[in-house]
């Protein structure tokens, strides 16, 4: 091998790639981009990875081990001044490639105007005209998980750059430093006076304003049934109820309802920001929620999850599967005979039995549940 040779398609004298990744929509979508980001770093470890995100997800993006730089997107509703500033920022970044995981005309136009020479995105509607590399995926068919579609785009980018295919990274896609999850558990135990040796079941009843979810009453029934199943085995879990902005009342009312049924329930106190909230989920023995951002944070942390999904094609358990290990996830949705968003058709007794069985056979943090 000569001194100028390196990985396929690249020479030692070439500058390292500077890749701009765009995932500038909701929290759950962004968390499902982390496997693709891990894939890019595995395939091009010397590359500088920048990400374009809205201010809402930026604090979590700054914690991602696969991201070197976070760039804020003011959004499509921002004025011309802010749009010009973003364009100038992209031009000054001297990016060699742009990977857009969810394409819109505005972003495609920005990448083209910024002069990024290598631009790849799904072949989606007319926005694809701004890209010189396009991948047909047909995501609307929901034939595979969203995070796998994202990984395929990352692999396509690496291939187009002449990079040798690497084995796909495995969970956790958000690996916490050693002892970080234990530290969160100790802090919460001290804050709320909880027994750290008991199973901690986090339950997020909010929907983020978009996801079809169980009602608070359904979650109360589910938790009561799970608790009853576990009580027969001598297991009494702590229920920790989480809430997003504007959802605090839902968590508070649910806590009152669970305590009335003699469950050990507490509302997780507000954190200083979405990044601190995300880190607390590392303390969960199980995270229960609809297909929301917090569920996908827990999946990215490789915590056990139980997700509740509508039956509609664009939001199936397969399409919005969490990216944790297969052995660490459960999914529930209405039967095919029910309406696509008829969450009341989910058999909560069966779901509770499945969750309880899962908890009884799963070892979390070295403790037998």
Task: Describe the 3D structure.
The protein is of the alpha/beta class. The protein folds into two domains: 18-160, Glycogen Phosphorylase B (Rossmann fold, 3-Layer(aba) Sandwich); 180-368, Glycogen Phosphorylase B (Rossmann fold). Helix content is 34%, strand content 16%. It has twelve helices and 14 strands. The chain has helices spanning 27-31, 34-43, 58-61, 80-92, 105-113, 146-160, 180-192, 216-231, 248-260, 274-280, 293-300, 348-361, and strands at 18-22, 48-53, 69-72, 97-100, 118-122, 133-135, 200-204, 238-242, 264-267, 286-290, 305-308, 329-332, 363-364, 367-368. The strands form three sheets. A six-stranded parallel β-sheet has the order 3-2-1-4-5-6, with helices on both faces. A six-stranded parallel β-sheet has the order 9-8-7-10-11-12, sandwiched between helices. The chain has a two-stranded antiparallel ribbon with strand order 13-14. Strand 4 (97-100), helix 5 and strand 5 form a beta-alpha-beta unit. Helix 8 packs parallel to helix 9 (248-260). It is elongated, with a radius of gyration of 22 Å. The N and C termini lie far apart (54 Å).
Blueprint of the fold:
Layout: E1 18-22, H1 27-31, H2 34-43, E2 48-53, H3 58-61, E3 69-72, H4 80-92, E4 97-100, H5 105-113, E5 118-122, E6 133-135, H6 146-160, H7 180-192, E7 200-204, H8 216-231, E8 238-242, H9 248-260, E9 264-267, H10 274-280, E10 286-290, H11 293-300, E11 305-308, E12 329-332, H12 348-361, E13 363-364, E14 367-368
Parallel strand pairs: 1-2, 1-4, 2-3, 4-5, 5-6, 7-8, 7-10, 8-9, 10-11, 11-12
Antiparallel strand pairs: 13-14
Helix pairs in contact: 2-6, 8-9, 8-12
